[in-house]
Amino acid sequence: MPLTLGLTGDVMLGRKVDEFQQRRAVDAVWGEVLGHLQALDGLLINLECCLSTRGQPWRRTYRPFHFRADPDWALPALQAAGVNYASLANNHLLDFEVPALLDTVDALTETGIAHAGAGRTVEAAREPAIVSFDGLDVAVVSLTDNTPEFAAGPTEPGVAHVPMELDREERETVRTILARARRHDPDLLVASLHWGPNMVAEPAANYREFGHFLVDEGVDLIHGHSAHVFQGIEVYEGVPILYDCGDFVDDYRINRDLRNDRSFLFEVTVEDGRVTRLRLRPTEIADYAVHWADGDVARWCRERMRERSSPFGTADAFERLGRGLELTVA
Q1: 26: how many CB neighbours lie within 10 A of its CB?
Q2: DSSP H or E stretch at residue 2
């Protein structure tokens, strides 16, 4: 039976989002998108903040931004949307030092939301998340090349960091991480990657190479994020590479050219352990919540996605689907 899994870019619930959520309904952060999220068979996000009221802002190296959300509302909000999995390998899990990272990991575990990419040791941070969706077993590994000072160590909490330069040592490290995931015999293997710099509309060559390497090593879907703007989509050897899913919820200053407040809810149809179809539903951030994009905004999203996918040969493969786009993978 085909299943539909949703994937989002960054979900940042701190600062102004956290402030507004203290005086509105728990599920208000999802706007009118909420019902659609709840109807999905599964939902995977990148959690771009820690969930805690503890810790002090990271000062060991320069950090201009620190993102933290109160778990008293944030956890119920994630549950209300039906979030099944959260990626934690990113550049904000240690914004409030080790206590807040540990609170995040423990809170998600206690709530039953699967997660990968951060932990008490490097071995824990590299462990895959295993999630079952109506009989479909999905393994997710989460890695980042951002903020090397946040990297977990043999006895130090942190995130699963790899430079994504693909030297011999890194290839073996990544192969070991993927082998751990495959030991669970998943139907679908997903790599959720927080890679690359902010505010760039196309991936650099090393990220394309890293994505291709993962597919060659057996990954079935690549869920990219980090740039704060959505990037193009490539289908390599029958596997979709979502180079960057942009931002889904945040309070960031808007770049009027790149429009980091606009993106998509990315939906993949999975049949017999393969992604066969991809649907892109345009979204827009307003009032510290996510909303459906319509009219000129939706048109802008469709046009930019086609433009940004052109280098990968997929621009003409997109078909119009309501306000969004659809891509047949296999």
Answers
A1: 16
A2: none
Q: Can you tell me the distance from the alpha carbon of 50 to that of 235, in angstroms, rounded to the nearest whole number? A: 32
Q: Looking at the chain, list the stretches that DSSP marks H as alpha helix, in order from N- to C-terminal side.
A: 15-21, 34-39, 71-81, 97-111, 122-125, 168-182, 205-216, 295-309
Q: Are 278 and 327 in contact (CB under 8 A)?
A: yes
Which helix H or strand E contains 202, and what residues bound it?
none
Predicted pLDDT of residue 173: 98
pLDDT score, position 330: 75
Looking at residue 1, its pLDDT comes to 84
Domain that holds residue 72: 3-328
How many residues are there in the chain? 330
**Chain centre to alpha carbon of residue 159:** 15
Regions of the chain with pLDDT less than 50: none
Structural domain total, the chain? 1
Contact (CB, 8 A) for 104 and 88: yes
Global pTM? 0.98
CATH of the domain at 214: 3.60.21.10
**Token pair in block for residue 321:** 């689907």
Each residue's pLDDT tens digit, 226-260: 999 999 999 999 999 999 999 999 999 999 999 99
